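pinned: reference chain
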Amino acid sequence: MIKTPSKTPRRQQILECLARMLEASPGERITTAALAKEVGVSEAALYRHFPSKSKMFEGLIEFIEETVFSRITLILADEKSALKRCEKILVLLLTFAERNPGLTRLLTGDALTGETERLRVRIAQFFDRIETQLKQILREAELREGLHPQLPISAAANLLIALVDGRITEFVRTEFRRRPTEYWQEQWQLIAQGFLVPSAVPQ
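pinned: its structure tokens
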């Protein structure tokens, strides 16, 4: 059913305001009072849509997960080369962070200080899930292309995640001045050289 154009639903409006405030106030905690003022409603009205601030953060994390993993699925469908798959997934993460500074504060845990442990666990699981996907790609490289990483698969996948994690953390630490994609093309060219090598042919 096609919906007629209407105003942004209040729930979505709250999440969009929260993301903007996370971007505008790096390093600061967001209070529900300040968020309510930004949205233009009372705190009680906020709680009619979300029972807690944690649930608001959870809504943003769900958006991150849905956006990133749906695009990873497309990358896997469109690209057959293991090295290209890895490259495109890493660029996806860096570009997503660069375009969504407020949400990047969630990815680094910067905005979750003092919040429920469940949220930090969920972010950790987000990165674990991507690392697992990279491991799978590297395992398939040997079967599909006769290639394997020079490092053990777990170490190789962890190296790729650590590189991205470092760029994203730097982005937040510099209050969004150092872009995650800065220097990335040159750095990736160096990393990609010899990252995958031909598997030994049985004698």
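why pinned: The chain is about 70% helix and 5% strand. The beta strands are 147-149, 196-198.
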